[in-house]
Design goal:
Layout lengths: L2 H15 L28 H4 L12 H14 L14 H9 L7 H19 L8 H12 L11 H17 L11 H6 L10 H5 L12 H14 L1
Helix pairs in contact: 4-7, 6-7
């Protein structure tokens, strides 16, 4: 992981730990579907950005899903023992959001993704998902600084800020909204999630709270499927 992205990752984790990410207004019931994939944060490409079967389709087509997945993973890259955007199901969160509570931003994403690839093709000769990790970082930095051309519908900074915000939401919001798969974001920052009760020992302890969050909708869905499979 580059020093640039170590810094960006630390910023996002720190912001979440400080309570910067609140729950969103998505309709309850749109919980994350499950998928399995391992990915090196240093080797993004079109086959790893959004593999067949990775959860999307409520709004994104395969091409746009791959771009968003790759972009979010560079904002919040996974590392050994530290979940990233893919591990937390951020793509699924954004996909469901754009089909529901964030439907007013559909055109923003369509045009922004097209403008992103136009800029990448002009600057590097290939779309975003086919760029090497350092080139993707360079593109994201240009967007963040407002130095990327080809953005006419919205500014490059507005596109960057929106994807960063939605990445943070997908990492750290309640799993009921489709991200934070298996409480990956909460575990990352040591947030205990909902608990039925805190004991006196819990309240008196000065150590980080380590008990797992209570079973959420994702876990309930898996348990239900497993029970039906055994029946």
């Amino acid at each position: 992981m580059s020093e640039h992205h170590k810094g960006r990752r630390a910023f996002l984790v720190g912001a979440a730990g400080a309570g910067a990410v609140a729950g969103t207004a998505l309709v309850p019931g749109a919980f994350a579907k499950t998928h399995e994939r391992s990915r090196s944060a240093e080797a993004p490409d079109s086959t790893h950005a959004a593999e067949p079967g990775e959860d999307h389709g409520a709004f994104f087509n395969d091409e746009n899903a791959a771009t968003v997945a790759a972009f979010c993973e560079r904002l919040m890259p996974g590392a050994p023992g530290k979940p990233g955007a893919h591990d937390a199901g951020v793509l699924n969160y954004i996909d469901l959001a754009l089909a529901g509570a964030y439907a007013d931003q559909q055109d923003f994403y369509r045009r922004g993704l097209a403008e992103l690839d136009a800029y990448c093709r002009r600057a590097h000769g290939q779309p975003f998902v086919r760029l090497a990790a350092d080139q993707q970082d360079e593109v994201i930095t240009a967007l963040e600084a407002g130095k990327a051309s080809e953005f006419a519908y919205s500014s490059a900074q507005a596109f960057f800020n929106t994807l960063r915000t939605h990445t943070m939401e997908g990492m750290f919001a309640d799993p009921i909204y489709g991200g934070n798969k298996d409480f990956a974001g909460w575990r990352l920052v040591g947030f205990p999630g909902a608990q039925q009760v805190y004991t006196q020992a819990d309240l008196a302890s000065k150590q980080a709270f380590s008990r797992a969050p209570i079973t959420g909708l994702q876990g309930q869905a898996r348990s239900t499927r497993s029970s039906k499979g055994r029946a």
